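Possible regression after last week's pipeline update?

I re-ran a chain I had predicted before the update to compare outputs. Posting the input and the new output here so someone can diff against the archived version. Not blocking, just want to make sure nothing changed silently.
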Amino acid sequence: MHRNATFPVLLITAGLLWFLHSTALLPNAHSLVAIGLAVAGGAMLLLDGLNKSTLVSCPMLMYAGLVVYGREHFALPFSVWASCGMVLLGLLLLAARSSAVPERSRRRPD
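New output (post-update):
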């Protein structure tokens, strides 16, 4: 009989976060969100591979992480980040139209 390990894992996670916060080793929330967005973009690219969908969504997730981090640490106004993001999104959308980039593969449910 297997027991659910959710509660012990939550206790360990909460204890680690509390310890890191108490010792000032935990980065601020903006940095954690930025890292999370960048890691999500990279993980999605690794899991799905390069296709028309990930060619656009993964770099945009990473760019969103850069924006969250950059807004906190650099003095650039939001209009600069937004305009650069629009250019990046447009370039990625154009690149995704290329026939060299494969379509998203349909996976069979396991």
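Follow-up from reviewer: compared with the archived run. The first helix runs from residue 6 to 22. Marking as no regression found.
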